[in-house]
Design brief:
320 residues; alpha+beta; Porin; disordered N terminus
């Protein structure tokens, strides 16, 4: 998810802006240095380091602050979208750049530009939404509890997900429309900290996934912009984990890999960073970066070429 601010906003010839650019450049250089250290420690592709540093540098540079916005979002978290300005219809439309693994556990990385957008309708503390691959409802109770429920699309693993032929001979897994239920509970004032959980389930050949998470919001803005970081752990049934990391008998015959069936339980632990800013009152830039470390059982699977996964994304959207 990629975007660049107008050059005029970054190259305005006045002393204050020059000082601002100096701080941006220094911040971006520090981010790049920090990410290079991570890259050398765990073997992250160099292109991902550059993309993430540029994305975070751009977000730091965001020139618009809408603290005085009249209507507040449902909750002031950058990871929870509310484009309605408090009531009625709202939405966002734009483009996103994504850099991620080709499939869960892959050592192949791919990037691309895709449409980014959402359509929402809000009435009081209830909001109905379509956001990418999810369609659902979220609501706020007693100012401390956020609930979400709905359906989402989950694509199945396919042999052509690997451009290097690592999945050659695999039988394509079915794609699914699955249901989800999520809660978040604020800890302290203004959703500065929160804990939450999510359950995801579908047909018998899909299984169930559970997620436990805890996050913290940074910055003083209450309009949904700012920075948020959260840690999470995932747990799945044997069916869910095997569909992504297992090797069926048919897969083994076609690929030559050993037949592998995984049990249920602990799946992974990770951390996600999200930053959302206004470039103008009608344009937002949204960046994210994440790291996920898989369980020892998954690391031993022949499907998992790496024991961890890294992703980065940047989008620019127009609000309407």
């Amino acid at each position: 998810m990629n975007a660049q601010p107008p050059r005029s906003s970054l190259l305005r010839r006045n002393a204050a802006q020059t000082r601002r650019l100096g701080r941006i450049a220094a911040g971006t250089a520090g981010i790049a240095s920090f990410l290079r250290n991570i890259q050398e420690a765990i073997g992250v592709p160099k292109r991902l380091t550059a993309v993430t540093a540029a994305a975070l540098g751009l977000l730091i540079a965001s020139p618009v602050d809408l603290q005085a916005k009249k209507e507040l979002p449902l909750v002031p978290l950058p990871s929870v979208f509310d484009f309605t300005e408090g009531r009625g219809w709202g939405g966002a439309l734009g483009l996103g750049f994504e850099y991620e693994t080709a499939y869960d556990g892959s050592d192949e990385y791919e990037s691309g530009i895709e449409p980014a957008g959402a359509i929402q309708w809000r009435n009081g503390n209830h909001l109905f939404f379509w956001e990418g691959i999810e369609l659902g409802w979220r609501g706020l109770t007693a100012e401390k509890w956020l609930m979400q429920a709905g359906a989402r699309y989950e694509a199945g693993l396919a042999a052509d997900d690997s451009k290097d032929g690592r999945l050659k001979g695999f039988v394509e897994r079915d794609s699914h429309i699955v249901g989800f239920l999520e809660f978040r509970r604020a800890i302290g004032k203004d959703w500065r900290n929160w804990v939450g959980g999510r359950a995801l389930g579908g047909a018998s050949d899909f299984g169930w996934l559970g997620v436990l998470a805890a996050g913290r919001r940074f910055g003083s803005s209450l309009d949904g912009t700012g920075t948020e970081i959260f840690a999470f752990s995932t747990f799945g049934t044997g069916t869910f984990i095997t569909k992504d990391f297992g090797v069926t008998r048919a897969d083994a015959v076609g690929s030559g890999l050993r037949e592998t069936k995984l049990g249920g339980g602990y799946r992974s632990t990770g951390v996600q960073l999200i930053d959302r800013r206004h470039l103008t009152p009608k344009i937002q830039v949204i960046g994210s970066a994440g790291f996920e470390l898989y369980s020892s059982d998954i690391k031993r699977s022949p499907v998992a070429r790496k024991g961890h996964e890294i992703e980065a994304a940047l989008s620019i959207v127009y609000l309407f």
